[in-house]
Amino acid sequence: MNFYKEDDDLREILKKQLEPSFFVWADRKLNEFGRKCAQEIDQRAIHTDREGQPRLIKFNKKGEDISEVWVNEGYRNTVKETYSEGIAGYPHKEIPGLGYKGNYIYSLAQGYLLSQAEPGFYCPVTLTMATAYLLDHYASKDIKAEYLPHVLSTGEEELYEGATFLTERQGGSDVGANEVKAVALENGSYQLYGEKYFASNAGMCGVAMVLARIEGAPRGTKGLSLFLVPWRQKDGGLNGISIRRLKDKLDVRAVPSAEVEFEGAEAYLIGDQNRGFYYMVEALNLSRVCNAAASVGIMRRAYREARSGDERAI
Ligand SMILES: Cc1cc2nc3c(=O)[nH]c(=O)nc-3n(C[C@H](O)[C@H](O)[C@H](O)COP(=O)(O)OP(=O)(O)OC[C@H]3O[C@@H](n4cnc5c(N)ncnc54)[C@H](O)[C@@H]3O)c2cc1C
């Protein structure tokens, strides 16, 4: 089985949309990725969904809060293999051997193939894509130099998956009701205090993009700023962050979604103060397109299962 090889329409669309030299390269890469999605990634996804869901390891043997998230080995392999294909990295950086950047069309084609097997994991991928977008567009030179190579990693650097934390208990749809507080430090960075109530990829991400209100900022969305929050400090310890619990979700079960508490988490302002909501909405627009690609992927899989009568669909 190969989700790409058996999809003439996708191939035709890409042939029309991509530069000829890029298409030749992408055609070869997607052929391999489409095979992987239909075979090992699919097998691992079934395991993750049914027996291998993420788990919270809240305390170590000494009773200290370590807030670690366990994911199964197959899932870890899927993470590694998918990012190494440049799904989040190549829209922003040069592809070795080609000498130019990839683009979102190629990335969305990968997302469409991935979602035919593992749509749950495509959620963290889109969070990482949103993080890459925000850092590439709005971060200072220094922050970009320190974090972006990790977020864009295709294997050469330690991978930092991303995350986007908006939702609070009192502010889901109403993001303007957010209360997480940012306290300015003399060195120009900030410390965050408060709680995020539905934080996907908690414990798996290397960095999270977090909306918070700097002390004294206006109420509503116009007083929210965007921060980069490293999950861990340089010594490997948690960065003033703890996970209270993982959500027991009906779906997207491959992703650890958590209630997260900040108690003095070190944070770096991204872009201008009080513009955070606007930046985040831009990034969410990217997630919307990814959601559309994932939905088409899921429909394609349903169609394929209905036609083939594959017993794994039952
Ligand atoms: C699988 C999953 C992953 C998620 N991951 C993240 C994440 O990574 N980061 C993050 O920040 N959030 C995340 N969320 C949270 C998500 O963004 C919120 O659930 C969403 O914003 C809705 O907020 P809420 O759940 O508080 O619902 P509410 O805002 O309480 O809404 C409940 C209902 O009321 C309706 N409603 C709300 N306001 C109005 C109004 N003014 N007029 C009429 N109707 C209204 C809504 O349409 C909805 O039907 C995730 C959620 C899920 C399910």
Strand content: 15-25%
Distance between the termini: 18 Å
Q: What is the average of the pLDDT values?
A: 96
Q: Name the overall outline.
A: globular
CATH class of the largest domain: Mainly Alpha
Strand order of the largest sheet: 4-5-9-7-6
Q: Are any ligands bound, and if so which? A: flavin-adenine dinucleotide
Using the CA coordinates, give the radius of gyration. 20 Å
The CATH architecture name of the largest domain reads Orthogonal Bundle
Protein described:
It is a single chain. The protein is an alpha+beta fold and about 325 residues long. The chain has two domains: about 10-55 and about 80-155 and about 280-314, Acyl-CoA dehydrogenase/oxidase, N-terminal domain (Butyryl-Coa Dehydrogenase, subunit A, domain 1, Orthogonal Bundle), CATH 1.10.540.10; about 165-275, Butyryl-CoA Dehydrogenase, subunit A, domain 2, CATH 2.40.110. It is built from seven helices and nine strands. The site of flavin-adenine dinucleotide has 12 residues, from strand 3 and strand 5. Flavin-adenine dinucleotide binds next to strand 3 and strand 5.
TL;DR of this structure?
The chain has 314 residues and is an alpha+beta fold. 40% of the residues lie in helices and 20% in strands.
Provide key terms for this protein.
single chain, 314 residues, alpha+beta, 2 domains, two-stranded antiparallel sheet, 7 helices, 9 strands, binds flavin-adenine dinucleotide
Give the helix/strand layout.
Layout: H1 8-17, H2 20-50, E1 55-59, E2 65-70, H3 73-83, H4 104-114, H5 119-138, H6 141-151, E3 164-165, E4 181-184, E5 190-200, E6 207-214, E7 224-230, E8 241-246, E9 257-270, H7 276-308
Parallel strand pairs: 3-6, 4-6
Antiparallel strand pairs: 1-2, 4-5, 5-9, 6-7, 7-9, 8-9
Helix pairs in contact: 2-3, 2-4, 4-7, 5-6, 5-7
This protein binds flavin-adenine dinucleotide.
Flavin-adenine dinucleotide binds next to β3 and β5.
